[in-house]
Fold:
Amino acid sequence: MGKCEYCGVTVEGRAKCPLCGRKLHKSTPNTMYPACRTDKNTAAEKRTPYWPALVTLGAVGICAWINLMTRGSAGGYWCLDIAAIFAYLWVLVLHTVKSKTRGSLKLMLQACFIIAMLCVFDWNAGRGLWSVNFAIPFACIGLIFLATYIVLTRKMSWNEYIGYMIAVLLFGQAPVMGIFLGFTHFVWPSFMAAGYAVFTFLMMLMFANGRYKDERARRFRF
Amino acid sequence: MQNRRDTYPIDTAAKLFPPTARPTNTSVFRLSVLLKESVNPKALQQAAETTLKRYPYMAVRLGRYGFEQSDASFAIQEETGTPCAPFDSAKEPFLLRILWYKRRISVELFHALADGTGGLEFLKTLLYSYMVLLGRDIDPEGKVLLPEGAMSDEEYEDSFLKYYDGAKAPVYKLPPAFKIKGGPLPAGGRNVLHGVLSVDGLKRAAKRQEATITEYLCALMVYSIYRECINESLDDEPIVLSVPVNLRGAFPTRTIRNFFCVINVSVPIGHAKTFGGALRIVKEELRQKTQEKNLRDALAQSCAVMEHPVVKAVPRFMRDAGTRFVFAFFSEDVKTMTVSNVGRIDLPSDMLPYVDHAETVIYPTERSPINCCMCSVDGKLTVSFIRTVKETGLMRYFFGFLARETGEEVTVYTNDWGTLDGKV
Structure:
């Protein structure tokens, strides 16, 4: 048995201390446990989602077939709406719910898919541009509100906090892009989203809690 | 011949375990004894068969209507995996394992089958049978349920229902507790780290603080969590230890099945900054929450929900989904870690010369990735940590503090799961 002077314990069956990793002067072979194998019953935990994938492909395929068979010369491609909804559901489950990535990244990906889904719906419903005029700006306002709620209720590190600040700015700017590209005719909802984003960003900067301010001052000197 | 039955009902507490068990929350605990010489597998196999005849309600599998008597032949196994591995209740014919490795005899039980006290009775009978088969002269001194003794119906009774008087106790949702986080170890196994020390030194250290051993170790755990896991600028939730309490002390019963409740010892961060502050809160909470009235409330809380006619009437899949939600919301969300003190294992004095020390290991869960269990035998206390995260700071501080404060030598050893790449 070896003694770890750093941890103050005697170590059995190891050349290194299992608590601090430092090498021991004396070491003994591990007679307490065998070289452990992985559990037999672990496979069930990580299942490839074959059935949901099959259901998705089946549903979209059947819808596409019905759509193409019945659309006639002036009909739309409503099967794209179904495909967009399924794509959104996959992102929702696999990324937003199951992934362990940052919340701000999840929110940004959600925003991308919501915007894309609204554009597809709009394009299929006669290209009235209601998505860029109204739906996307109000969706962005909703997402900014959600980001504000998360920041207020959840504890987070300073870099996560900055992630949400960036997300808020991007959500505000996305509808304005429509104005610059000439798609948006009703500009007030887009400007409202941009204004709300800038306001929220400034509030987050000003009223950030102490620990964020400390980190910001320490790292960026302002 | 024992009074065997075909099925045994699942008791009130055990209804929680089957729906919530999965590979990352196995609901399996282990009780082990380390002998002073190598285990004889042949004698152990024979002892296991004898013991299971004495405890027919343990030789069961999970069926549609409760525990069903298993007719498969039971085989002990040489230990090859990590402790508390999951049971596949659909495939495996038993809900318990008897394992051996060099000097260790282990019993692993699915928690629905029994609690720590019930499991210990089983282990003691197994050990007694094993030693008798090796030709040792053991006087049981009334401390062991003998293999040739008759089984009584009381041994598998649901003591929760026996003592539940229909009273209702309000159920409160506690605020979320601080959760230990860390880099995950490889999936499919659990790392265990044991520390063995003399009980005498610990007793003296606890006495200096006017505390019991459980209070002292719980307070040290809180303090170690504060020192090693808390980020003071970020974490403000209380440190909550989930401490299982054996209800047999307050409500006499001979049941081997589950008869325990869990009390949550909550220490606000402000009080955890010093060991003395943590100890004061832990003492207050433990003493207050283990009073008979509070234990009766805990018992009523368990029974009132499970025995509610509406809960009983809903289809099983809905009840299981509800159980999973209750487990996540009322149990996992409100605790930082589980600290279970199985206590002194009272073996007959003739058996003690053959036993070196004992180990108890309780399964970790996803949100409680480090759990701790302790037990003592013949003046040697073993504190066993099980973890699914890489970080060892908590254990290092805990054992370092114990070695300093008790003046006793602490011997640590591990199963090396996930750490053989040269890291700790």
